[in-house]
Amino acid sequence: MEQNRSIQLMDTTLRDGEQTQGVSYFPQEKVSVGKALLQSLKVDRIEVASARVSDGEKSAVQQLTDWARNAGHLHQIEILGFVDHTKSVDWIVESGARIINLLTKGSLNHCTNQLGKTIEQHIADIKQTVSYAQAQGLSVNVYLEDWSNGYADSPDYVYQLVDALKDLGIEHFMLPDTLGVMAPKEVFDSLTDMIERFPSIKFNFHPHNDYGLATANSMAAAEAGVAALHCTMNCLGERAGNASLAEVSVVLKDKLGLQLNIDEKEIHNIAKLVESFSGKRLAANTPIVGADVFTQTAGIHADGDHKGGLYITELSPERFGRERSYALGKMAGKASIIKNLEAMEIEISPENQKKLLDKIVKLGDQKATITPNDLPFIIADIMESNDFAHIELLNCSITSGLDLESSANIRLRIGDKVYKSSGHGNGGFDAFMKALDHPLSDSKLTMPELIDYEVRIPPGGQANALTECVIQWADDAKQFHTRGVNSNQVFAGIQATLRMLNVRLHQRQ
Ligand SMILES: [Zn+2]
User: Fold this and answer.
1) What is the distance in A from the centroid of ligand 1 to the CA of 144?
2) Where is each Pyruvate carboxyltransferase domain found (predicted)?
């Protein structure tokens, strides 16, 4: 295949991605994601809504198109529309968008049994909507819904439909594997056939991930020579989702040598943005964007990195604006410890390193989750010194009641100064945070922004189980998290907060 061929990505996080169970964006969220996709990630095209959904949807699209017109991105915004003569087209014109992605039927089965029409009737209806859209100044793309089944079961229907539409000035013919039933070889063979039959048409492939093959199918479609691939951030979409933009873009570049406009350094940021707006958590082991994919767990890998990159692949964290980290646990080796100590600028003697490793392996055996931010506490523990425990909660009582404001009374050591303080708030954790105000300002310590607070109990846990609290903090451009574990969930949050403050105090020294 030719080198340096370029291929377009069309992102449909805001349209097909919104068909994920339980996902619905606020208009402002839609606008933020749309801007980020075009401006930061530099996606070629985005599909942002279905026509005629609601007035709220229309106003979200209007906000986005207002911005895009001034920023020079209007030609990249597309809206799904229906074969309904004037209705979808009018809605799209009012929304300020300029491109309709017209949903036509790509299988005889859908045409006959869903529309109750012959192919001739359907083609006449499509032509009527296309010519109205073009008369209103819209550019037209068509989807052939259920194309994968249509091609398998009624190929003559597919050829006849494309043949009837090919000279209407339609920009892209978009072929969906609507139910995600294809395998890579079928994708390659069928698209090769379509491209050979209709060489002047720009075909797009629109995969779904029901067999977990969406990325592999996208690669096969690119090899067959399609002009564009459709994908979503975080694999959002109905059922098993669409194809993941992160995976597809990296595979096309690394495995096929294709040129893409994507700015890879932004993929992780935008994945996090979409994660928070959609409420759909990324699994920690999601390729490219998951929390754990650049964490080395086994000591031998950290040892390889320590000795000069023996386990390097093209998927480096720096490429995606991320950092490599070294997990601590029972698989940790001395090299993991050294890497973490280096990162935190902590120096300890070789004997203490050995003690530290033993302690970490022991904690790992007890299934405790250990993060680098726990290191200073563990060091303080094994060396029985206060050198690394800069902050200590000596006493804390919290009272809460139904319809009552919570209050917290604390005794706290920061460095060698002991504070007594109290606070009131909306819940026990908030009261504790208020009680910290005075000791922190007296110690000239600022609180980073709290951006996420997650409490969980182990799967299958009982009401008396330990709870784990993970808090995500943001400080300047950097994000980090700390954990706390306690049988009381408020104290788990307090512990996570104290760990964060300890790290900051240590960095200050
Ligand atoms: Zn779809």
Assistant:
1) 11
2) 7-268
The contacts of residue 362 (CB under 8 Å, 6+ apart) are none
Tens digits of residue pLDDT in 261-294: 999 999 999 998 999 888 888 998 999 999 888 8
Distance from the alpha carbon of residue 207 to the mean position of ligand 1, in angstroms: 7
Number of C-beta neighbours around residue 422 at 10 A:
14
Ion ligand 1, residue ranges at CB < 5 A: 16
| Torsion angle defined by CA atoms of residues 91, 92, 93 and 99, in that order, rounded to the nearest 10 degrees | -160
Query: Is 15 a residue of the active site?
Result: yes
How far, in Å, CA of 65 to CA of 344, rounded? 46
Q: Model-level pTM greater than 0.90?
A: no
Q: Which two tokens stand for residue 112?
A: 């006959």
User: Do 264 and 309 have their domain in common?
Assistant: no
Asked if residue 58 and residue 35 are part of one domain, the reply reads yes
How many residues in the chain?
Answer: 509
| 156 plus 94 within the same structural domain | yes
Of 15, 45, 98, 322, the catalytic one is 15
Structure tokens at 500: 């964060």
Catalytic residue among 18, 57, 78, 145: 145
Alpha carbon distance 462, 134 (integer Å): 62
